[in-house]
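Table S2 (continued). Query chain:
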Amino acid sequence: MKTYKLTAYEKDGSLITEETFTAESDDAAKEQGHQLLTEKDLLERTHRLASPLGKLLLFHT
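Corresponding output:
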């Protein structure tokens, strides 16, 4: 399992949420990240999901 980091921000740059979670693969992490963003109603906010290697898997400005 790999550890991924999901962050979401307000337009002024202030942090809304920062969560870490584990997933089997990048694809599984994308699904889990999307689900978390949906649950917290943050899909339209600036967000990013980074892999343990620093690869951006989800990004929205």
